[in-house]
Design goal:
- With 392 residues, the chain is of the alpha+beta class.
- It contains 10 helices and 20 strands.
- The strands form 2 sheets. Strands 1, 2, 3, 4, 5, 6, 7, 16, 17, 18, 19 and 20 form a 12-stranded antiparallel β-sheet that branches. Strands 8-11-10-9-12-13-15-14 form an 8-stranded mixed β-sheet, sandwiched between helices.
- The structure holds S-adenosylmethionine.
Amino acid sequence: MPNFHTSTLKKLSYPCTFGETTFVYEAHSARGNILVMASMGGEPMLIRIHPKKEGGFLVKGDKVTRPTQASFLQKVLIDFRDASEAKEIFSNIEPKKFLHVKPSPFLKEINFFANDFRVEREIWVEIGFGSGRHLLHQAKKNPHIQFIGLEIHKPSIEQVVKQCELQKIENILVVDYDARLFMEFLPSNVVGRIFVHFPVPWDKKPHRRVFSAAFIEEALRVLHVKGTLELRTDSPAYFEFSFSQMMQLFKAEISVKKNAELEITSKYEDRWRKMEKDIYDVVLTNEIDSQEITRLGTLCFEERVDFSKIRNAFKEELLRGDGFFVHFEELFEIDDTNGLIRLSFGANERNEKCYLCIHNGMISYLPNAILATKSNVAAHNLMKEWFNGICH
Ligand SMILES: C[S@@+](CC[C@H](N)C(=O)[O-])C[C@H]1O[C@@H](n2cnc3c(N)ncnc32)[C@H](O)[C@@H]1O
């Protein structure tokens, strides 16, 4: 994150414009932290100011409102430094370090699947593709299929996106998203195959496994009739666990193989084979046409609230529900009627970090397009109850 340290900062009078940036307001927390709302090129972003124990300030961009181009944030910080006549002690915001992210047509943000993705051909999904050997092989062999590759390990994602570009493979979309939560972004009955090859076994923390009853249920919904959910693993515990989860279905077609050969082996598979480990395949075939689901919308608050009551009642607080949570982290006051709350919330596996802006009694999210996934809706409802309890 671009940042600078300074010994002094002159207070700005808001709103004001300096260089290409408009500085809209400043907000203060009880811990002494300051947020400055800035805007450049139509994009709102927050700057955080932390007073340092030894004197002076650390000024940096806020991760939550990260702009589309890192260079925007660097420019905003340069404008803020100059407007507030800061005396830099350390800085990494100079133009020579401007970063330009080159978007890749193969790498998609999750919002793409919520808003723009259209099913034009059969989809096959690979979960945790790792080095991507299997995904790339299948995509080249099946050019009529749209592949979606899910991974959470950034170097693997970069490597596979690069391979798609180099090898001009145009039927793969890569997503950096937790596979346990991704299926709800897909329509029903559109997927032919879901590959889960050598998932992390999590023998000591089974709740972290990709496979669960809820995951199997969502997988069956997105699979068309005769579509398959295919697990390949070297872990007897994972095999038994997944098999028993499938057997709990009222009706199921399940096939099991031991030490079957595939056309392509992954790095993990090569390693296990050298160690002469057994490999298990469990394939669940979907037999049911599922109901359509409505497209995911975004979350919003309708009820009015009273910022002064919220400010008086606020304390850092963690609320938990079944599989989801809301963590109210810090409250920032702009004036008596306006402020922001920094919070994280959503599924235990993957949380959203954002601000709630309270402006003239209305609450909005910043960034504003928070997707209405099941866990986010549940957490949002918990927040609404929390606000209700304080304000009404
Ligand atoms: C043991 S590696 C196997 C990689 C590859 N399938 C292979 O056979 O070589 C497991 C991979 O799953 C990824 N992974 C783990 N949990 C995941 C999740 N919840 N969603 C998506 N990917 C996940 C990890 O980052 C890792 O790359």
